[in-house]
Each structure stands twice: as C-alpha cells, then as structure tokens.
Design brief:
The complex is a heterotrimer of chains A (563), B (297) and C (198). Chain A is mainly alpha-helical and 563 residues long. Helix content of chain A is 66%, strand content 0%. Chain A is globular. Chain B is α+β, with helices and mostly antiparallel strands. Among the domains of chain B are: 105 residues, Immunoglobulin-like, CATH 2.60.40.420; 90 residues, Sandwich (Immunoglobulin-like), CATH 2.60.40. Chain B is built from seven helices and twelve strands. In chain B, a hairpin with a 7-residue loop joins strand 6 and strand 7. Chain C has 198 residues and is mainly alpha-helical. Chain C is elongated and about 65 Å long. Classes of the chains: A mainly alpha (563), B alpha+beta (297), C mainly alpha (198). Chains in contact: A-B, A-C.
Chain lengths: 563, 297, 198
C-alpha cells in the first residue's frame, strides 16, 4: 500500500511522524458538517435533552405558581407564555427530535446499512429543526420592544383561532410560534422521507420486510404517518400567516370565516402527531422487553399489523378533541366509535408484551425497570383515554386537568419512561461505556415517585372542575390540596432528570467499558463495535431470520427454522 | 358508571397479569439453569384471536352505551317550558340576555330551580363576540364552547336551589382564569322577584347625582349601558343593576365600594389584561362615581 | 462476545430493492398532496359562504388553453426521460425545453388571469372568502410550478452542457414524477375551482 510504504520510508529516513492534535475547532467542524447518521442522531438527542431541561424548568415554574390559590409568583402574561412554551417545546423540540434522533442512529444499524438513504437531507433536516428551536426561544428577546405587544408566544401550543389573529395577538410572538413550528415540521418531514427510503431501499441481503426487526418497522409506520399528518399543520400555519399579514380571511370570523376550521386542521395533525410520538416508544419496547425477558417477541405479525392499524385509525379520531364544539350528534358518535376502536390494536400490543414476558427469565436492569413502568403506565393512560373517548364523559372533562393528567401519563409515563429505557439500553452502544446501574436505580425510583405524585393526583382537580391553562384559581373550589401535591411531585422529577444527565456525563468518561454486546441481544447493531465505526459494518451482513445474532449464538436452534 | 367499571376491570385484570408475570418470571440469581434460554414462543393463533375478539366486543358494548347517551342529550327536543337565555362570551366576562323577559345582565346568572315533576330547565343559546370560550359549571352539565360566528345550545336543569360555580374552560387570552361563572338557582318566588327588579330601569338616587353626571360625561357611556339613561354602550357589561350583584370583575372579587373604586380607578389592579382601560379620574370624581355605581341597585 | 460477529455470507438470490430516489419523491409527493388537500378542503368549505364581493360565477373563466399546455408538458417531460434513457441527448434537451416552454405559458396565463381579477374585477386575497381561498390554492400550485420549472431549467442546462448522460435517467425520472404530480394537482384544482365551484 502506498501509504504504508511512505510511512516506512519516513521512519527509515528518521523523520518524526507527528500526529496532529485534534483541535476543538476540528471537532466542532466535524460535527457541524457531518452527514453520518450516527452523529446526526446524537446531535438530535443532545439537542432534545437540552430543550427538555428548559421546558422542564418552565413546568416547574408553572407548578410553583399553581401550588397555592391566588398566587403571585408569576404574572398572568408570563404564566400564559410558560404553558405555551412548555407545550410547544416539549412536543416539537424535545419529543420529535429525540425520537427521530434514536431512529436516525438505530435504523441503518439494525437493517445492516452503512447510512441513511439521503445523508445530506438528514443533516439539513437536523439543522433546520434546530434553527426552529432557536427561533422559538429568540422570541423571548425579539418579539417585544420593536413592535410592541408580546414577547414569547402565549396562545397555547395549539394556538386556536381567532385568538391568534392580529387583533387579539398583536406583535410578533404568535409569528415566532408559527415559523418555529413550521421549520420543525419541514425537518421532521425530511427525516421521515429518509427513514422510509432507508427501510424500503437499503436493507441488507436476506432481510425481507418480514425479517426486519420491529424497531425499523415501527419507524417506517411512524414516518409514513408523519408525511400525512404534518402537512395539515403546515397548511394551516401558512393560512394563519396569510391571515395575519396579507389580510386573508381563513379564520376571520368577522368575514364569515370559521374558528372551528382551524381546530379541524390542527387536530388532523395533532392526533396522529401524538401517535407519531408514541410509536417509537413502542419500537423501543419491542426490542428491549424481549431481550431482558430472554424470549422472542410474541406475535411478530400481529405487532406489525397492529402498528399499521393504529397508524391508519389514528387519522380518523381527531375530533375527539372537539366534542364540546357543537359538531352535532352524528359526527360526535362517529368519533367516539373511532376513538374506541383504536384501543383494540393498542391493547393487542400490550397483550403481546405481556406474553413475551410470560415464561421468560426477566432481568430487571434499569432499562427493564423503566420498561416495566412504561407497561403499567401506558395501560392506565390508555384506560383514561377510553374514558375520555366517551363523549358525555368528555363533555365534563375536556379542557380540564383530567385531560392534562391523561396526556402527561402518555407523554411522560409511557413515552419518557421508554426513552429512559432506550437510553440505558443503547447508551453503551453509542458511547462504548455502560451507564451506572446504581445511579440509574436512584434515577428510576425518584422519578417514579415524582411522576406518580404529580400525575396520579392531577386527575382529581380535573374531576373537581379545574379547567386547564388558568394562571391561578380561587380558594373556595377545593382544589388547593391536590395542586400542592401535584407541585411537590415536580421537584422529585426535576431531581430525577438531573441525576440522569449527571449519569450520562459521568458514565461517558468513567463508566465501565461496554464491548459490542453487553446485553446478549439479537439484532444487528450488537454485531459491530461500541461505538460503531463510521462505516458501521466491515462487511454488509446477510441475514436469514429476524434475530441474526440468536442464530449465531444458538446454531442448533436458529430462528430460521421457525419462521 | 359503565365506562368506569369496565376500565377498572380491565386495569385490574391486565395490570394484575403484568405484575404476576414480572414477579413469577423474574430471573433469580440462584437459578441453576441461568445460562439456558427459556422456551422461545413466537405466537399462538388461538390466544391472539381471543384477545382481539374480546376487546372488540367490549368496544362495541361501550360504544352502543355511549351513543345512546349522546343521542339522548344532543338530539332531545327543546323543552317547551324552558327559560331562554342568550349567552355571549367576551374577553373576559359573560353577557346574559333574557330575550322574552327584556333583561340584560352580566356575569351572574339567575335561573329558576326546576321541579323534577314539572321541569323548568334553562335553555342557553350561546356565541362569542371575540375569541373561543367555554361554559362549564361542573355540577350542572358538561361544557359547551362559545365560538364566534357560530351558535351552540345546551340546557341546564338544577333541581336544588343554591349557587353553582364554574368558569370559562377554553383558553381565551390573558384573563381566562378570571372569567368566572356564578349561577344562582332561585326558588320560583325569588326568581320572579329578581326578574321584576331587573326589568326596571336604573334607580335614580338624588344623592348620587354628581357621580351620575361624571359618569355620563366620561367615556364610560361608550362601553356600558345603564337602562333609562344616555349610557347605551354594548362593549362592556350592563351596569343597570350592578349594585345588586355579589361580585364584580366576572366573579373574581366581592362587590364592595372599595373594590369597585379600585377597579374603576385601574382595572389592572385586579385583572391585568382586562380590556377596560384605567379611567384617570381624580379622587373626588372617583368617589362620586363609585357612590353612583353603588346606588344602581 | 468477540469483536464484530461475522454473519455468514451465502450467495443469495439477486437482492434488489426499489430505487431510493423514486421512494423519496413518492414520499414527498404524498406530503405535498396532503398540504394541497387541506387547501382544497378550505376552498370547498368556504364555497358560497363569502359575505360580499365577486363570486366564482361572476369572474372565473375556464382556463382551457393554459391547462392543455400544462398537461401536455407531462407528455413532453416523459419523452425527455425516454430520450435520455436511449442516450439521445439532443432530443432530451429539446423535450426539456418544450416542457419548460409549456410550463412557462401556463404561468404567464395564470399571471394574466390574476391581473384581470385584481385590476378589473376587484378580487384580491382580502376581498372575501372566495378571494382568500382562490388565490391561496391557485398560488400554492403556481409556486410548485415555479419550483418545478427551476429544476427543469437546471436539468436543461446540464443536458445542453453535456454533463447529463443516460446513467442519470433515474434522477431525471424522479424530477419528472414531481412534474406529473404538479399536473395532477392542476387537474384537481381545475375541477374543484373552475368546474364544480362556479
């Protein structure tokens, strides 16, 4: 080889080979210009964790304000900005990035590919999303002053019209919301296109779709949902901007426009969006639960069918967010039916996970502890969802803290718990070091207590009549004790998150070396080093079953005999 | 109740099974066969079929029960003995009009108690003058939204007299939290008395003449109505009988002279973001106007 | 577990997967179609609900000529792809130029129609609900035509300067799929706005 010969020559000539020191600038340049799916995945994840801390702090401020009635910790204007920013940040700049980040990292590895289908589109998607997040927070500085009213947006994360019209929201705060979310949407669609093209076009030889692990399958379904779901939001936001700046009348009720039309467009996006957020959590569960139960996933074809089913049905349930709007008994009844039907495939998934654990040998590592929490909490969240699907029940409870408790049960209790589980499971692969199990257990228990203190008890003020999005409440409604308990749980959760961030930083430098396959798992990402080299695999593998590493480890009883 | 019992049942069964599986099948450190993997079971058609069919049946049952309630509530014919009230939502107060009785008031709704044997419910016809609002009095009914350029209807049917509290349940802007609802379900006699009092024009108390003059020479009359005077503004609440109300600022503070004075001086002292601007009256005028308002019983 | 487990390499039957470019553009088309559907829903929802101003019946005329131009451009772009596939670069450039010309005529026709509507009929985006939904829907489509034409011009440039060859047929086909989508959207918009709505 030319370089080897040159090196020998140099050595022989006695010229000292200086290895250039990697300057910080060089490292930064590498990360900013990277198109490698693994680095982009880590950028997404790091970015999301950063915003999670910010949005979590916003939640903490909200809970301090609501801990006692008629509190003056923050003004009404600031409170309204806090809940808007908390919701918008958590959905678009924590949830979407972290889930697409894991997808970016894992999907090519699990299907035996070297990268995503469109690496430069991948990088573009990340940077435009990141810009959106910065734009949203710039509103704290930029939206007031020059043009008057408004600082950060304060219209709620679903920004109902006509509150968002120029007359009710002057200044630029609403525009920052609209543009930031629009940009994030473009990034998400870009990543979704990448994931679909990658899973369909870049699987390694032998990996028919029926042999593809469930994680890429669920990311495929999620991404298909993303194209169809994010576009209505983009369209509605274009219409909102036209209304605000060009004088069009899409949502202008004075000109005959309809406030309800915004609701329809938003929720046609909004409901599939929450399924887009939860499907990756299912994907993680599909990989983690089998490995720690030491059994294959029960009912692979049913899992695929249920996921596709959920994907489709999720587009037909949106108006269960609008039961109190006055659509009439016909539409209300239809949406009740659709919302209840979606419980069937969702339930099937829970039963399959149960059956996977049944008869297994469950190892309760921290990752599995979080997955166990996920199973119980997702069950409860689904059941309160069924309650809300019954429209008469919903007429009392929509717009109240019962709904807030329900959706946080899904977002935190199911999705965030599963994200933590995924961190503990795949951090060794990504960094080469194991996360500390001891710190992890502290993290789990403290967060678990905080989660239940807050979100179990949050159902009660809702049942007692407390609406959402109120900056304070009267002392004579009987809500104060519950609010105090809810607020106290927030402190535990904050401590839990800080422990988690500390664990990641400490373990990156000092954690035990992980090796390629610390969990004795069965999918392709565990067949390469930790962390994987830039090219992922030295040789592109050929697979014969759903669990290629199981086949290797058990040549007498490979999966390929049973599929 | 059906919904609650079914969901509780599912929780106990599935949750119980999950808990059992986690305890019974956990890896034990003293396991002799630790290195051996458990039997790999990939699926079972019978089991999977049954846990698809049973949930479908449960869903059908729940749906039919729910649909029945929806149709009974939403498609029920309007009761003939109902009292008609028109509700208009504003940022951040409630306007109530009784079209057949010629009454206009704000924030405190008086309705007759309804005898189950001869019901006299109140039929609300609702819309909004600005953004979306929602009318929610939990002890009386579920919520219904008030949407601009759209009319929604609902009815309430209290069987017991008393005060029912609620508040706006759709985020409508800065003071959404202080858009409180107070519904007074009065006995028939009390209600009749209230109606006849409200139907009267504004009380003309000579001792409040100075305050009345100041009121009528200021911007007050462009937003507020005082029946029988030159004040015919419709942007703000009707003040004809304001002194007869228990609270001001849409239920958020008690209706006392001190509070009234503070509110007129600067609404932002109770409700920052309320659309009424501070009136910039000097102390003498402020006292006079307060006395005038307190005289409007 | 040893380093990098080697998965056995057996000669498997030819492992062919769909082209990334085609899958990618189909996904993009689905996403864009969803945006158009929302604008069309808004158009249909507000039909007949304008409080004032000119109605579709008053001011709209069927844009037959420009529509024929746009729809024929689908044919010409298909011929361009086919020509490239058979390494007839001259013909490819010719058909690309024809596509751009036909698309350009469509845009010019739209511009002329809008000029008439704004200055002679007094219909702008802020006039009434019809104006709002009409200009936004047709404008969104026109924006997509502009983007498509820019890409086609780029392709024409590459074709004329000899940079493009038959191995790039796949990429030109991806672009042509986008162009077919733009035409298909016009069919729907034409039907909804000029036929049903009037």
């Amino acid at each position: 080889m030319a370089t080897q010969a040159t090196a020998d020559l140099d050595q022989n000539a006695g010229i000292k080979q200086t290895v250039p020191r990697r300057l910080w600038l060089g490292v930064l340049h590498d990360w900013v210009t990277t198109v490698d799916h693994k680095k982009i995945g880590l950028l997404y994840i790091g970015y999301a964790v950063f915003f999670m801390v910010i949005a979590g702090s916003e939640a903490l401020l909200i809970r301090i304000q609501l801990a006692v009635p008629n509190n003056h910790f923050v003004s009404p204007q600031v409170f309204n900005q806090l809940f808007t920013m908390h919701g918008t940040t958590m959905v678009f700049f924590v949830g979407m990035p972290i889930l697409f980040g894991f997808g970016n990292y894992l999907v090519p590895l699990m299907i035996g590919a070297r990268d995503m289908a469109f690496p430069r589109l991948n990088a573009f998607s990340f940077w435009i999303s990141a810009f959106g997040g910065l734009l949203l927070y710039f509103s704290y500085f930029g939206a007031s002053g020059l043009y008057g009213a408004g600082s950060a947006p304060d219209v709620g994360w679903f920004a109902y019209a006509p509150l968002t019209a120029q007359i009710f929201s002057p200044g630029h705060s609403t525009d920052y919301w609209t543009l930031a979310v629009l940009l994030s949407g473009i990034g998400s669609v870009g990543t979704a296109i990448n994931i679909v093209a990658t899973t369909i076009c870049m699987r390694c030889p032998g990996m028919k779709l029926s042999r593809m692990p469930l994680l890429p399958w669920l990311y495929l379904v999620t991404s298909c949902m993303a194209f169809v779901a994010i576009s209505p939001l983009t369209a509605a936001q274009i219409m909102l901007m036209l209304d605000r700046y060009v004088g069009s009348h899409f949502f202008d009720t004075q000109a005959g426009g309809s406030a309800v039309l915004w609701m329809h467009f938003f929720w046609i996006f909004g409901h599939p969006e929450v399924y887009i957020l939860v499907m990756p959590a299912f994907a993680f569960a599909n990989e983690i639960i089998p490995v720690f139960s030491r059994k294959a996933i029960f009912g692979y074809p049913a899992m695929v069918a249920a996921s596709v089913g959920i994907g489709f049905i999720s587009f037909s349930v949106w108006a269960h967010h609008m039961f109190s709007v006055g659509m009439g008994s016909g539409p209300n009844t239809f949406f009740v039916l659709a919302s209840m039907v979606i419980a069937v495939p969702t339930g099937i998934k829970i039963f399959n996970w149960l059956a996977t654990m049944w008869g297994g040998k469950i190892h309760f590592t921290v990752s599995m502890m979080f997955a166990a929490g996920f199973l119980f909490q997702f069950l409860i969240a689904g059941l309160t969802g069924i309650m809300l699907a019954a429209a008469p029940f919903d007429w009392q409870l929509t717009g109240s803290y019962f709904v807030v408790a329900h959706f946080h049960y899904v977002l935190v209790g199911a999705i965030l718990f599963m994200i933590f589980s995924a961190f503990y499971y795949w951090f060794p692969k990504m960094s080469g070091h194991m996360l500390s199990e001891r710190l992890g257990k502290w993290h789990f228990w403290i967060f678990f207590i905080g989660f239940h203190l807050t979100f179990d008890f949050m159902h009660i003020p809702g049942l007692l009549g407390m609406p959402r999005r109120i900056y304070t409440y009267e002392a004579d409604r009987g809500w104060q004790i519950w609010n105090m308990i809810v607020s106290s749980g927030a402190i535990f959760q904050a401590i839990g998150i800080l422990l988690f961030v500390y664990n990641m930083i400490w373990s990156y430098f000092k954690g035990p070396i992980a090796g390629p396959d610390p969990w004795d798992a069965w999918t392709l990402e565990w067949s390469t080093t930790s962390p994987p080299p830039d090219y992922n695999f030295a040789v592109i593998p050929t697979v014969k079953s759903r669990r290629p590493l199981w086949d290797l480890k058990h040549p007498d009883d490979p999966d390929s005999h049973y599929e | 109740m059906l919904v609650l019992s079914i969901t509780c049942g599912i929780f106990l069964v599935v949750g119980g099974l999950l808990l059992y599986a986690m305890l019974r099948y956990r890896h034990r450190p003293n396991d002799v066969n630790a290195a051996q993997e458990p039997a790999q079971i990939y699926g079972s058609n019978q089991i999977e079929l049954s846990w698809t069919v049973i949930p479908i049946l449960i869903v059908v049952m729940l749906f039919l029960a729910t649909a029945r309630v929806i149709l009974a509530t939403e498609d029920a014919p309007k009761p003939t003995s109902a009292l008609d009230v028109t509700v208009i939502g504003h940022q951040f107060w409630w306007e109530y009009r009784y079209p057949k009785l010629g009454i206009v008031t704000a924030n405190e709704l008086h309705i007759p108690v309804s005898d189950p044997k001869h019901p006299t419910p109140t039929y609300l016809t609702m819309s909004s003058a600005d953004t979306d609002h929602s009318f929610w009095v939990p002890r009386l009914a579920g919520k219904t939204d008030l949407i601009p350029n759209q009319v929604n209807t609902m009815w309430i049917d209290p069987n017991n007299p008393g005060l029912y509290l609620g508040q706006c349940a759709q985020y409508c802007g800065v003071q959404h939290a202080k858009m409180l609802i107070r519904i007074y379900a009065d006995s028939p006699a009390d209600f009749a008395a209230w109606v006849s009092h409200q139907q009267g024009l504004a009380v003309e108390n000579p001792s409040a003449a100075e305050g009345r003059k100041i009121f009528q020479h200021n911007a007050c009359i462009s937003c507020h109505t005082v029946a029988g005077t030159v004040a015919t503004g419709r942007f703000g609440p009707d003040l004809t009988h304001i002194a007869s109300r228990d609270t001001i600022a849409s239920g958020s503070v008690p209706n006392t002279a001190a509070n009234l004075r503070a509110f007129v001086d600067n609404p932002a002292s109770f409700k920052p973001g309320a659309l009424m601007p501070p009136m910039h009256l000097n102390d003498h005028d402020l006292n006079a106007v307060t006395a005038y308002l307190m005289s409007l019983k | 577990m040893s380093e990098a487990a080697i998965i056995p390499q057996n000669a498997s039957p030819a492992w062919e997967l769909p082209s990334r470019g085609i899958v990618g553009i189909v996904c993009l088309i689905v996403a864009e179609a969803a945006i158009f559907i929302i604008f069309i829903v808004a158009y249909l929802y507000y039909l007949g609900k304008s409080l004032t101003g000119p109605t579709p019946h008053d001011v709209l005329q069927l844009p037959i000529f420009t529509s024929i131009c746009l729809l024929s451009s689908s044919l010409t772009v298909h011929l361009a792809v086919s020509a490239l596939h058979h390494t007839r670069r001259g013909m490819c450039s010719l058909w690309l130029a024809a596509t751009i010309l036909l698309g350009g005529i469509f845009l010019a026709g739209t511009a002329h129609e809008w000029y008439q509507l704004i200055y002679h009929d007094g219909l702008t985006i802020r006039t009434n609900l019809f104006g709002t939904t009409f200009y936004s829907l047709v404008g969104l489509h026109a924006t997509h035509v502009v983007v498509g034409l820019s890409m086609l011009c780029l392709a024409l440039f590459f074709s004329l300067t000899g940079v493009m060859s038959s191995k790039h047929t796949g990429r030109l086909e991806v672009l042509s799929l986008y162009w077919h989508f733009v035409d298909a959207v016009w069919v729907v918009v034409f039907t909804v706005v000029y036929v049903l709505g009037r």
